[in-house]
Amino acid sequence: MIQAFKSVLPSKNKLQIYTDGSHKGKWGSWAFVVVRNDCIIHEASGRQRYTDSHHMEFQAAIQALSYLKNGTYANIYSDSKVLINCATKKRQRTPVNREQVQLLDQLLLKNNISWIWVKAHSGIIYNERCDQLCIKARSIQA
Length: 142
Prior knowledge:
Layout: H1 2-8, E1 15-24, E2 27-36, E3 39-49, H2 53-67, E4 73-78, H3 81-87, H4 98-109, E5 112-117, H5 125-139
Parallel strand pairs: 1-4, 4-5
Antiparallel strand pairs: 1-2, 2-3
Helix pairs in contact: 2-4
């Protein structure tokens, strides 16, 4: 019954969440942007040293899901097929750590999430914003 409700819920009532992760040099970064009615209502980013881009893609989704109140309906847009396949249980050899996968699974149980793949650097405004936030997070001097 919940599945039927999920499928008829208009997408305009769902939050739109864009996530991204990246890695360059010694630093990785993650970002997410939460959109409602074509307005950004929240965004966040962070960085981590000595990591990889897969880890950062997963961290972006984990941070976004942690931001949500339990029971939230949302579409998550990501340019990471590895993340989406893992989140939708199409798992093969996932190149991320087990702790991240377990945390992602726990967070997904608390919300009603649809996953949508988007092509990176293709002009999608909120995906591009995530990329800008990742670049900015990596460049912060500590």
